[in-house]
Amino acid sequence: MAIQDPSNTIVLQVEGLHVNYGVFQAVSNVSFDVRAGEIFGLLGPNGAGKTSTLSAVEGLLQPQSGLITVAGYNVKENPLHARANLGVQLQATNFQPELTVAEILQLYAGIHGVALTKEKLQHILVSIKLEDAAKKRFGQLSGGQQQRVSLIIAMIHNPQLVLLDEPTTGLDPQSRRQLWERMEDLRSNNHGILLTTHSMEEAEAVCDRIAIIDHGKIIAIDTPQVLIDKHRNDPEVISVSRKGKITLEDVFIGLTGRTVRS
Amino acid sequence: MTTTTIPTNKAVLSSLLRADFTTQWRNRKSVILILLIPVIILISWKGLVNKLGGAFVLANCITIGLNAIGLMGYSNAIARDRDKGIFQRLRVAPLTAWSIMVSRLTVQLAMILMITTAVFVAGYYADNISLSPAGYALGFVMAFVGGAVYLGLGQAIVGLIKNAETVNAVTRLVYFVFIMVGMFAELGALGDKVGNAVKWSPYGTVKHILSAGMQPATWNQHSTMAMLVTAGYAVVFAGLGIKWFRWSSK
Question: What is the pTM of this model?
Fold first, then answer.
């Protein structure tokens, strides 16, 4: 059943999620929620279980057990309804390289049941400062421009929940700041955002709450500041601190270890 | 309480079809190549038309075109889009997986229609080959049946092999083997044993039903058997292709 979207409404609920690949347990008993008007960061080293968790939320893989609802719709029982309330920005540039920006926007509007008039298309392009790029192929855009197109496509059907998978990877500082501002705009418009990132600076700057996942389990969940305050005296955290001041990155490395993951 | 609107199948399919046809159009160089090879063979075989028969020559050229569509065009496009994550991006939208494939296959059906028409037109003007109206109509029907074999084979290869570059290499090899062995064996250059094996191969049965379909009066028990074997190939290849297919290459 759909839930209305006032502030603090839960737009994503993940409860007791388990994902296995054969005998390997990628996600084990993961639970968290994302509320409307919240940016929730899911942080973890490589192979920690972030992508598997996101894939389960997107309905791209079947978890062994657990409950996932998007805007109140069970992802397993009502996948189309859940996906209709979900906007996704994936890491890679995954649009047909033969299509122009306008054609890609028309395609994604169409498959989300959104009527896109010429005026509306132009308005969208102006809003992302790409009014002259309508006839450009996606591959001809810069990294920052591609991310703007990708984000607007994720938002084209005005979803309650937006998944952003490492959206600022490879962007210059200006483009990254611009994307943060767009995320904050989404938050102020009451969208819930689930963000994965390897940038602790980004997580600290934009996330309202953070979950740190490692070896498939959530090992900490709270606001960035509370996490820092809670762990500032941990010996592991102090030992990795570099500037005398405890940062979120120190807490993250302290909790997940110094070992580089493949 | 809010209600969620799910787009209709018609709206989804029309958006997908528009994008897939546009993609195909933008790849028109490879489309022209797929069209050109059978037409060149058709023209270069002008002197053999009286010896081999017009329907044989047309069937041979259409079979080569169908091979190219299923093995070179379709399978490589699917492998590339899977590798680039284009399917994953589409699958997080509120649409069913079958609608993505229906759209892709519709484009291929249009390609089969185009190549068959091109061969018929080129055959008429370059080699003076003309068929009865029933021959043309059955020729199109058999082209679709034969096309299903190669699309199924392409799907099976994409299902079996995850890497797009390996798919490209394997499909080129299979295409080359089918064409070279098929053509030379049918012309008797590879001996009776190979000739008989080729007769019941996907190349031979498709070519036979096309040829027999274009001359309905010559349809015989062998043609019916070839038709059944062709349908069997299509079902087995497509079944394996669907069973083995994964939407992501990772």
Answer: 0.88
